[in-house]
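Project outcomes to date are best conveyed with an example. Our students and postdoctoral researchers have been running inverse folding experiments weekly, and each run begins with a structure described purely in tokens. The record below, which covers 433 residues, was selected by the lab manager from last quarter's runs and is presented without edits.
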């Protein structure tokens, strides 16, 4: 396949052109600036795009982002170590190896939780950090929250996954022979953590959110995203006010620890069940708007594009889909005639997963797996199946989940050009020797 799946930037640029043509009201990027930029042949970010929002909000973000990004030898831009037994590095990102989850509990340990960074992890000082809530749909705004003030609000705790919309993307190509753009994840762009934080709804109510509010736009304090000389501004994606007031968390703890830098410390947004981009890390300000807001992340990115979709793409993506993964390397070697326990995990953004079936003969016969967790919304279930391989040679292991809405993973996933929401049954290659 000649396509370079890891080249997200070329693809982003093409999409951005469409967006500039079609959108009059945008948050954080001035439409005229964008058009000038395109006319100038996408000269490197000289127009100062992305100095977004109010001057006050911009001031806040700069004050808090005092220190520059720091990285490790493993990947500049990521703070924690990324040993090859635990992670596969993909561009600026680190994918969790599912084999490294075998024997761990329901929660993904912090040392192996995947990292998806558009740029680099910023080092923020929690005492200098401020969250500014502003916009035209507040009766008591703008309001600022320090870390201590946020922690003084009533705390909520939930076990929830964060999963990239592109998780499983590489299987569109390897299983279905289709061209897709974006990071070539296998299945490890997901982690489950126990989060503790304040309710976004409590913060919005204290800022006097009005009935006119339509969109809520959290924005990260990490660097502005520049792709091929086009400055998209800081990472930000609007949430409908209904979701923002429902179950969204401003998290400051992950698995009982202060939120690690790579996962958005000191404070990130956690949006239950929705695609990972919704859960903005290093949140510095939140705009509450009486008008719908558009950013690159809800216009040309994170919608479905393709022949079956309207030209502007599907509606912005929200809930995650259904998947299953074995806790085993792809292409693992397993000994013949030796009894073993196959283990894995299944999850859905729509409902608890209550049934998992496994095939060890390439999909001819299926057996029900034993579930090791009580199925819960927003998390995954661990499962196992005993297996004694009888014949040497190459074969495929398959796992397919069914969630409480009655949906089962299909044999093939519906193609879209950016390879989002893969939900097909993965044929996991193994060799019996
Ligand atoms: N500020 C900011 N928030 C962000 C991102 C980012 O690059 N910057 N990446 C998003 C994407 S695409 C995903 S999948 C998740 C990944 O969260 P994690 O790195 O903690 O696993 O964070 C989201 N929030
Ligand atoms: Mo993502």
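After processing, the design step wrote out the following sequence:
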């Amino acid at each position: 396949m000649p396509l370079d799946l890891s080249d997200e930037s070329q693809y982003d640029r093409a999409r951005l052109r469409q967006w500039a043509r079609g959108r009059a009201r945008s948050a954080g990027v001035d439409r005229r600036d964008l058009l000038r930029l395109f006319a100038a042949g996408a000269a490197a970010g000289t127009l100062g795009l992305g100095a977004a929002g109010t001057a006050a909000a911009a001031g806040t973000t700069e004050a808090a982002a005092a220190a520059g990004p720091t990285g490790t030898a493993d990947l500049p831009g990521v703070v924690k170590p990324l040993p090859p037994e635990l992670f596969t590095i993909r561009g600026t990102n680190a994918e969790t190896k599912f084999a490294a989850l075998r024997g761990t509990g329901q929660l993904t340990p912090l040392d192996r939780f995947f990292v998806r960074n558009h740029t680099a992890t910023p080092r923020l000082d929690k005492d200098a950090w401020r969250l500014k809530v502003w916009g035209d749909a507040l009766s008591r705004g703008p309001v600022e929250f320090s870390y201590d003030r946020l922690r003084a609000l009533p705390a909520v705790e939930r076990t929830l996954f964060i999963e990239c919309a592109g998780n499983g993307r590489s299987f569109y190509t390897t299983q279905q022979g289709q061209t897709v753009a974006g990071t070539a994840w296998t299945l490890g762009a997901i982690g489950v953590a126990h989060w503790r934080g304040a309710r976004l709804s409590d913060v919005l109510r204290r800022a006097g959110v009005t009935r006119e509010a339509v969109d809520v736009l959290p924005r990260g304090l990490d660097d502005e995203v520049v792709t091929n000389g086009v400055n998209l501004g800081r990472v930000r994606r609007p949430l409908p006010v209904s979701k923002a007031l429902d179950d969204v968390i401003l998290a400051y703890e992950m698995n009982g620890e202060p939120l690690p830098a790579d996962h958005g410390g000191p404070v990130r947004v956690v949006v239950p069940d929705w695609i990972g981009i919704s859960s903005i890390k290093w949140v510095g300000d939140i705009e509450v708007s009486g008008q719908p807001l558009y950013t690159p992340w809800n216009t040309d990115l994170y919608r479905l594009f393709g022949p079956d979709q309207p030209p502007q793409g599907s509606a912005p993506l929200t809930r995650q889909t259904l998947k299953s993964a074995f806790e085993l390397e792809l292409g693992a070697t397993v000994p013949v005639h030796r009894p073993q326990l196959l283990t894995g995990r299944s999850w859905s953004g729509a409902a608890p997963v209550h049934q998992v079936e496994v095939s060890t003969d390439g999909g001819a016969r299926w057996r029900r797996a034993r579930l090791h967790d009580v199925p819960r919304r927003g998390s995954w279930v661990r499962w196992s199946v005993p297996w004694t391989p009888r014949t040497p040679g190459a074969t495929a292991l398959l796992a397919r989940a069914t969630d409480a809405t009655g949906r089962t993973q299909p044999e093939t996933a519906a193609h879209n050009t950016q390879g989002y929401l893969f939900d097909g049954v993965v044929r996991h290659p193994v060799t019996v020797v």
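The radius of gyration is 22 Å. The domain at 323-432 is CATH 2.60.40.650 (Immunoglobulin-like). The training component of this project remains on track.
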